[in-house]
Structures are given as C-alpha cells and as structure tokens.
Design brief:
The structure holds 2 protein chains of 2 kinds. By secondary structure, chain A is of the alpha/beta class. In chain A, the strands form 2 sheets. Chain A has a 6-stranded mixed β-sheet. Chain A has a 4-stranded antiparallel β-sheet with strand order 2-1-4-5, with helices on one face. The two termini of chain A are 19 Å apart. Chain B is elongated and about 100 Å long. Chain B is an alpha+beta fold. Chain B has a 6-stranded mixed beta barrel. In chain B, strands 13-14-18-15-17-16 form a 6-stranded mixed barrel. The chains are: A alpha/beta, B alpha+beta. Chains A and B meet through α1, α2 and α3 of A and α1, α8 and α11 of B.
Chain lengths: 243, 788
C-alpha cells in the first residue's frame, strides 16, 4: 500500500446526505445518527472511527442497504437507496456489497468453502470459492468448520466470503474487534490487498484509532454526529501498525 | 452439487434429529391411523359391495306367519322390485353334542332345485344337501369352527316338539350373516348362534309350511327406494300375519357392519387431525426457536443477498422434510396396521374373500395432510424470518421482557425460591406457548381416557343390563304365545327356582309418516327378574293406561310424553288404537314400548298369554335345566345370561389389550413428543443462564429445578385438562354411537383417570431423563463464550 490516497480514483460510490436514524431497542428509543453526511469515493479506503454507541454500525448498515435511514438521502451511483424497496435492497446487497462483521457471522453448520459458496452461488460473476480463500491465505483450511478455526481464520473466511462476489463496496464492522493484534494485522492485510488488487471501495468501522492510519480518509463519529474528518497524506501499511 | 443453503438444511436436520424424530413419530402416528382407517374402510366397502352384488343380497326383508305359495307371484309386481325370493325359516333350539347349554339356531330353506335367487349361499366345504334326505344340512362356517364340527357330525334341533337329527354335509357363508349375531345379543358368539340351510321340502313339512312360506326377500331395481315396496309388501302380507318389512339398512348383520364402517370413517378424520395438529404445534415451537438461535445467521444471509422467499423456504423445508419423513413412515405403518385391523375384522365379519383396497388417493391424502401440517407449523417461524430486519438482527436481541409472575404478585413471593421464580416468570412470559404445551400433553391424556373409559362404559352397560335390568339366569322365548300351562311346565322343571312370565306383542308404532316395528312388552309392576330401569337405575313405575317408550324410540318417532301414537298390533286380530305416551325411559338396550299387562291384554283382546319367561335357576342344576329346555316343544329360543357375560369377557380379553396397548403407544408418542420438545427448547433457551448458575455454584439438581420444574408444572396443569377433555370426547363419542340397538352409559372408573395420568407422568419422566443427559453434558465455558 503506497502513495497518498492512491486507492481513490475519482467519482462517488456512495453519497450520504443528512442521514438520521432513530430506532427502538426494547423499550428504549435510540437516536443512532443525527444528520450525518459522508461520501465513499470509488476504490477508496475509509475508516469510520468512534467509540461504541457513536452510531458507526448504524451508518455502516445504512451504507450496506441493511437498514434504511429515518430521514436523509443515500445515493449509490446515483440510485436513491432510501427509496428502494425490500427487493431492491436485497439485489443491491447481493450484487454490490460485501460485508465483514465483528463476530464473523459464519454459518456454523457450513465449512469454510461452503460459507464462501453461499455467496458465489447467488452471484453473477463470482470468484471461485477456492480462489477467494486463497486470497485470504486459507486455501488449505477450506474444509474446516467455523468451530475448528481460530478467530482470525474465521474472520478471513468472512473476508473471503465478502470478496468472492467481487463487490463494489466492502463494508467491515470492527473486523479486528474480537482478535488479538497478530491475527488482527493478518486480517487488515487481507483487506488492504483486496482494496488494492481488486479495487473494492472499502469502509471499516472501528473504535481502534491505530487502524485509521491505513485509510485514505478517516471520519470520526461521536454521539451520532461527525466530529472530525481528515485525509491521510500517506497510508501506513497494515503490517506496521501497533495497538 | 447441493447448494450451500441446502447443505445447511441437511446439517440442521441432523443436528436437531432427536427433536425432528420426535415430531416425525407424532406425524407418523396420525398418518398411520389415517391410512389404516382409509384402507380398512375402502377394503370393507369393496369387499362388502362385491359380495352383496355377487350373491344378490336382498334390499327388503319380511317375515309372516304363513303365506300361501300363490301370493309369491304378486311379489314381483311390487313397486321397484326386481326379484323376489320366498323361503321357510324358523328359529329353533339346538342340542349340540358336547354342549350342555341349549343353543339358538336358525333354519333356512334351500330351493329343492337350483340355488337361492337372493341371499346366495357360498359353500366353503363339503356339498349341498341332497333334497331327498331330510336330515342333511349345511351350517355357517363360524358355528362349525366354534364347536369344532366336522363334515358328517350331527346336531339336534327341536322342531315342533320333535327332536330331529341334522347331519352336517357342508359349511357355508351368507351375506345375511356376515355378522352372525342372535337377536338381543350385543356381541356375536360363534358358539351360541348357528345358521343351518336345508332342503325346503323337509323344512316345510316340519313346520307345516307345505304350499306356503314365511320369509320374503326382495331385491330392488337400481335406484328404487325401499319405502314404496315396504308399504305394499306390508299390505300384501297383512292377511297372513305379516310382521312388518324392513329395509336392508335395518337388517341386523348389515347394520352392525355399517355401524363399524361409520366408526372407521370417523376415526379416519378425528384422530389424525389431533396428531397432525400437535405435530404442527411442535414444528412451530422448534422452528421458532431455530429462528431465534439463528437470528444472526439469518441476518447475514439477508446481508449477503438471500431473499425473504428463499430464506422462508429454507425454514419451511425443515418442517416439510420432518413431516414428510413422518408421513412416509406413517404410510408404511398404516399399511401394516390395516392388515392387522382387517384380520381382526375378519374374525367378526365373515366374507368369502377379502379384497384389500389400496389407492394412490390414500397416499396423496396422507402426504397432503403432512404438507398442510408442516406449512401450518412453519408459518409463524417463516413470518418472523421475513420480519427480521437484517440490520437489527446483527445486534444481539433485546433482552426478553420478563415480569413478576401472577403467583408472586398474589403475595406468594416469599415462599418461592429464585429457581422457582425463574420457572414461573418464564411460563408467564409465554402464556400462549405454555397453553399450547398444556393442550398438547392434555390430548395424550385424553386419548388414554377415551380408550379406557369406552371400555368402562361398555362394562357398565353389561353390568346394568345383566345385574339390574335382566336379573334372570335364562330368558326363554316361545314360538307362539302360550297360556298358564307353559308357566307351570317351566316352574315344574327341577332346578328352576323362579319363573316370571314375559308378555310381549309385535306392533308397529306410527307417528305421521315415522314408524317403527317394535315389541310392546308388558311387565309386571312388581317384576323381580326382568325389569324396566331408568337412568337412575330405579325400576320404572307403570301407568295404568299409557305407553312408556324407550327415549331413543321416542326420539326416532319424534314424540314426547303427552303425545299420541297410532299402535298397530302385528299379531292376533291385529287391532289398532291411538295411545298416549305417558313417559320415556332411558333404557340402554334395544328400543321397546312398555305397557301394564292388563292394559296390553285388553288391547289385544286376548286372555292371559305368555310370549316367554324369565327364569331364575339353581346353578347346581344348570345342566338338567338346560336339558329340560332343549326338550320343550314350545321353546323357540333360550338366552343365557352367563353365556352373554362370558362372550363379553372373551371380547374384552381379545380386543382390549391390543387396543389399550396401541392407544397407550399413541398417547405416549404424543406426550413424549410434546414434553421432550418443550424441554429441549427450554434447555436451548436457558443454557446460558443455567451455565451461569452452575458457575455461580448451583448444583446440577438445583438447576434441574429450573428446567424440570417447568415441565412438572405444565404436566400437572395438563393432566386435569386432559382428563376433562377425554371425558368430553367420550361423551361426544357415546352420543354419536347411540343406536337403536344399544346406548352406552357415560361412566369412567377412577382407575381410568389414574392410568391416563400415570402414562403422562411416565412420558414426562422419560423426556426429562433424556434431556437431563444433555443438561449434564452442558459445557459451561463454551456456552458462556458464545454470544446468544
């Protein structure tokens, strides 16, 4: 990973304007987002930084078409996602978006390759499942079930699953949150490689400020609002970071 | 190449195999009952219809005193009649070597040349009687088997006072005696009732029927109603002592067969519905839990781009696979069961050959029923899958809302330990599910009650009939009404300690266009042996003038006390008169009209006549009394109390153990299915809190309270519900089975309730033991590490 913001090659993949989100959790009303505007440049690497409860997961869910905002606008290459119905959102996720979650969310009853195939089977032009596993360095673990793998390995399977469909956008929710530093760095390196080699627009949310150094651009969230935004002059390599 | 989502399905099926299997067995039980009943019904119907058609079973039957032969020519002219056949028949008392008791026999004439036009006789062994030989006869197969009679063996019939030898030259079956039962009996006893066919010429001579006949059968043209033919036939036979014609529907063998088939059809509907309903409920519970556990997986699948339709289908498939597996098992079991059931039927219903009828329609019906149950069961779970917003599902579910339970709010809190509070709060949080579990378990108790209480009721009927209503040892019927001489003759038989005259007259009761041919019985107000007893088990008091009717007869005729009926006597000078119904009585067997003896005599303008007698005998002198009765010319039939009780006991021994075992099995399947799945779901829902409690230092026994306390409470609540449900189902069933031949009283022995409750408790114990095994293997660390 070199150069200054070289991943971004102009144009917007996603543009969010004045997005708010209020939802019920049990008997409590949560204001997760209070007027947030963010852009994702095509091929860019964005880190959303913030403490827990700052609204970053909600932001990511809305970017990924998992959730719709209470108000505001979200455009994917000019298509208004806030007006999309359930079927259109499903197609958006199916074709454009790859997700990586903090707790991996693999299907426990399927092995590594089958978890990836879950995606390749419903995609138009996927990578072969084995190749996706190869990219994350798990070619030899393909027949292992989630319960037989370490956290880092499971997360890399999740990344393989996310990239196998050749997504436009790769969204990662605390991808290293449950991992120790060594395995965390392996996972970040995998993400770095996918962004660089396949040009997938990548957004990572994390509360870990150290990770921010590998991004083109860093957006900090606090209490549902953007508190700070900056562009990294140079992106650090994942292998060099410490936390 | 199996798609990954389907591989997940297969592994989910395997992982939850024990719950899936428990549900599949419930489905299998229901489908087995459905398929077995359908196959039995269709096989019996096909067998019966072909037998009736091939052997020209009559559509209308009538008896008369003596009809001259020339009248036979006009029978064909009756409306709707296709063919007519006339015979000479007679009820006789038989003396069968090796049997001290007098046996009831029916002698039926065979044409001197050719074979019967109607009610064809199928020869099973031996040959037809030689018309030239008076003593040759063929006998119904069951009677021969019951007494071990071989070709060439001899029995004796008392014909017109003469003891006549009958030599058995063949055995046979007849559509008239598919169910061979003597009038007044509840159960067929092959040793107590024999049918003999012999050459007409000799039978006519013996009964003074030369140039005449006393038995008429008619077959009707296709689509012709029996009523016009019956009305005309009655008019035609009136001058000859016609006793009233009946349609096939009232022919006794046919009636029993029909009644059994109606019961089968009811079973084909009701029981499978109970089983499949419970299976749907269990599928619902398990699938909802599966959706809850897989909440995040579902969210991921949605995030990846799987549609609601595909995911809904995924969970429905689980239910479909489980119930279709159960269905296939049930179809196989049902086919086996139907063979066993048909074998049992063939013990009681005799056909020359059984046509096993098996249609693809049955299988389709069974599989459709399974499909319906699984879709019904999956519906709620699928709905929650569809409703689950993918983003929300990525977060852990909000903690379930618990409230302080009702018992605690009632102030019992301080007596409840924490584990017990957890049990109560958990139950009160999901009242609908708790209620469904209770209903499911209750059904298993009710099936037990139903099976066992039906027997209690039958037993009560027998007890009441033979210990309270008919307290005689022997009931004798005469060929013709007799005078006092017959009374003294009976009283003088050594060993007879009590004789009570029975007066009865055959009559037709008419209310508008409803009518029934019944016996009007005159009973002494101070009768000790044969009495009329109401629902309160007290003898009924007689009104001087009025007519007392069996309640069932009053229902059939559409009359109530105070109404007037037209009464037409079918004997003597055949007088007719309007009479007022003074009361109805809840008697249990047959339908009768009762009158005070003097009133009946006045109506018939007859001097003291006796149609039969009730006897009390000294048990030590039984054999000599029987020997004397066999030799009495006036005696047409002898009913023995102890023989009826014995055949009842044999019936109970032969059938009840099997029935009880099958019902016990089915009830246990349901109880186990419901309780086991409830326990497994509970364990799955609470493994985290149970593991936490173990970490905090609770013992296994203490956390067992949380899990099994819930089961115990559900079971305890279900048992009374189930007993009540079983009782109501029994009441409904007995009401539906109320017939003119018998009505069963609604009684249940305490033992029945205890037995049903015990079966449910045992099922709970079994389920608890299996789940306990799983609980003991709970990996504390693993459970606490995973995110629920």
């Amino acid at each position: 990973m070199n150069g200054n913001g070289s991943g971004a090659n102009g144009g917007l993949a996603v543009s969010m304007r004045d997005v708010t989100k209020v939802y019920q959790m049990g008997e409590v009303e949560v204001h997760a987002l209070r007027g947030v505007s963010v852009d994702l440049e095509v091929g860019g690497f964005l880190v959303l930084l913030g403490p827990s409860g700052s609204g970053k997961s909600t932001l990511l869910n809305i970017l990924g078409g998992l959730d719709v905002p209470t108000s505001g606008q979200v455009l994917y290459r000019g298509q208004d996602l806030t007006r999309a119905d359930e079927g259109e959102l499903t197609r958006y996720r199916r074709r454009r978006v790859g997700f990586v979650f903090q707790f991996y969310n693999l299907i426990p009853s399927l092995n590594a390759r089958e978890n990836v195939e879950l995606v390749t089977e419903i995609s138009d032009d996927p990578l072969p499942a084995q190749e996706a596993l190869d990219i994350v360095g798990l070619a030899d673990r393909s027949s292992h079930f989630p319960s037989q793998m370490s956290g880092g390995e499971q997360q890399r399977v999740a990344i393989a699953r996310a990239i196998a469909k050749r997504p436009d956008i790769l969204l990662c929710d605390e991808p290293t949150g449950a991992l120790d530093i060594t395995t965390g760095i392996q996972v970040l390196e995998a993400l770095e490689r996918v962004n660089r080699d396949y040009g997938a627009t990548t957004a990572i949310i994390t509360h870990n400020a150290a990770i921010a150094t590998i991004a083109d651009r860093v957006v900090s969230l606090a209490d549902g609002r953007i508190s700070r935004q900056h562009v990294n002059e140079t992106r650090a390599a994942a292998s060099t970071i410490q936390w | 190449m199996i798609p990954a989502l389907d591989r997940k399905l297969l592994r989910d099926l395997w992982r939850l195999r024990s719950m899936g299997l428990a549900i599949a067995v419930v489905v299998a039980s229901g489908i087995a009952l459905l398929v077995a009943s359908l196959i039995c019904f269709d096989s019996l119907e096909t067998t019966r219809d072909r037998y009736y058609a091939r052997h020209e079973f009559g559509d209308v039957f009538a008896n008369a005193k003596r009809v001259p032969r020339w009248v036979a020519g006009s029978l064909d002219e009756l409306p709707g009649v296709d063919r007519a056949d006339t015979r000479v028949t007679a009820g006789v008392t038989l003396d069968v070597p090796g049997t001290s008791e007098p046996v009831n026999g029916r002698l039926i004439s065979l044409p001197d040349s050719g074979r019967p036009v109607l009610n064809g006789v199928t020869l099973r062994s031996g040959r037809w009687p030689d018309p030239g030989r008076a003593e040759e006869a063929i006998v119904n197969e069951r009677f021969a088997q019951g007494h071990g009679l071989e070709l060439g063996d001899q029995v004796f019939a008392v014909i017109n006072g003469r003891r006549q030898r009958l030599e058995i030259v063949g055995t046979a079956l007849s559509p008239e005696y598919v169910y061979a039962i003597a009038g007044g009996d509840l159960l067929p006893d092959p040793t107590r009732f024999g049918v003999f066919w012999m050459a007409r010429r000799h039978l006519a001579t013996a009964f003074d029927m030369e140039g005449g006949f006393n038995d008429i059968s008619l077959s009707l043209a296709e689509g012709a109603a029996p009523e016009p033919a019956i009305a005309e036939l009655d008019r035609l036979l009136e001058p000859y002592g016609g006793l009233g014609a009946i349609p096939r529907a009232q022919q006794i063998s046919h009636w029993y067969l029909q009644n059994e088939m109606t019961g089968l059809r009811g079973m084909a509907l009701l029981m499978p519905m109970i089983f499949l309903g419970i299976a749907a409920f269990l599928l619902n519970v398990v699938l909802r839990r599966m959706v809850a556990v897989q909440r995040e997986q579902i969210a991921v699948l949605k995030a990846i781009g799987y549609s609601n339709l595909r995911l809904g289908l995924h969970f429905t498939q689980w239910a479909v696979v489980v119930s279709v597996l159960g269905g296939i098992l049930g179809i196989a079991l049902g086919a086996l069961m139907s063979a066993a059931m048909l074998n049992l039927y063939m013990e009681y219903f005799r056909f020359p050959d059984l046509i096993m009828r098996w249609s693809w329609g049955h299988i389709l019906a069974a599989l459709l029923a399974c499909g319906a149950a699984s879709v019904l069961g999956a519906a709620a779970a699928v709905k929650s899958v569809v409703r689950l917003p993918p983003a929300e599902a990525m977060r852990p579910a909000a903690p379930d809302t618990f409230r302080v339970s009702l018992l605690e709010r009632l102030g019992l809190k301080r007596w409840l330990t924490q584990p017990l509070r957890m049990v109560l709060r958990n139950l009160s949080r999901r009242p609908a599910r708790a209620a469904m579990s209770v209903i499911g378990i209750a059904f298993s108790a009710s099936i037990m009650v139903l099976a066992s209480a039906a027997m209690d009721s039958f037993e009560e009927l027998m007890q009441l009939q033979f210990n309270v209503v008919q307290r005689q040892d022997v009931t004798v019927t005469f060929f013709e009404p007799e005078g006092r001489a017959a009374f003294y003759e009976l009283a003088s038989v050594p060993g007879v300690v009590e004789v009570e005259p029975l007066n009865g007259a055959s009559a037709r009761l008419r209310n508008g266009n409803r009518n029934r041919q019944v016996g009007i019985q005159a009973l002494q107000p101070d009768a000790r042996l044969q009495r009329v007893v109401g629902a309160d088990y007290q003898p009924v008091r007689f009104d001087r003038t009025g007519l007392i009717l069996s309640r069932k007869l009053a229902d059939v005729l559409g009359v109530a006390p105070g109404d007037t009926l037209r009464v037409e006597a079918l004997q003597g000078t055949r007088p007719e008169r309007d009479m007022v119904v003074s009361a109805t009585v809840d008697d249990l067997m047959g339908v009768s009209a009762y009158m005070e003896p003097a009133a009946l005599r006045r109506f018939l303008s007859d001097s003291a006549t006796m149609s039969g007698a009730a006897l009390g005998i000294d048990p030590a002198a039984r054999d000599s009394v029987y020997a004397a009765l066999k030799g009495m010319p006036v005696v047409a039939g002898v009913a023995l109390q102890h023989a009826m009780l014995e055949s009842f006991e044999t019936f109970v021994a032969e059938n009840m153990n099997n029935t009880m075992a099958i019902n016990l099995l089915f009830a246990m399947v349901i109880a186990f299915g419901v309780i086991y799945n409830t326990a497994r779901i509970s364990l799955s829902e609470r493994s985290r809190e149970l593991a936490s409690m173990r970490v905090m230092g609770f013992t296994r026994a203490e956390i067992g309270v949380v899990l099994f306390g819930e089961l115990a409470i559900l079971t305890a609540a279900a048992i009374p519900v189930g007993l009540g449900l079983g009782y109501s189902m029994l009441a409904g069933m007995l009401a539906a089975y109320e017939t003119e031949l018998f009505r069963m009283p609604l009684v249940t022995e305490p033992g029945t309730f205890a037995w049903a409750s015990a079966a449910v408790v045992v099922a709970m114990g079994l389920s608890a033991a299996v789940v306990r095994h799983k609980l003991n293997r709970l990996d504390l660390v693993e459970v606490l590490k995973t995110r629920e």
